[in-house]
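Batch manifest, entry 17 of 40.
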Amino acid sequence: MSGKRIAFGAKPAAPTADAWVQQGNGAEATVETPPQVVAPKADIYTARLTIDVTPELRGRIKVAAFRQGVTVAEMVRDLLETRFPDDGADA
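Output type: structure tokens
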């Protein structure tokens, strides 16, 4: 290894997260036009449910969700809402 030091230029300014997200849509981010604020899913769904399933069932669930164009979480939430509607009665 030689004793030469390599000088690097100044670190470029990092874009804001909002600007980065908007770049994915082809839109240019500006300070004057902030993106629409949407409540994160964490604010809506705050309880986590963990279940054990076989690898085969997991695969079938993932394929079904893909075919429906939704995430596994969205599909399972919909199934649970259908099976356990909020009708005001205790289970």
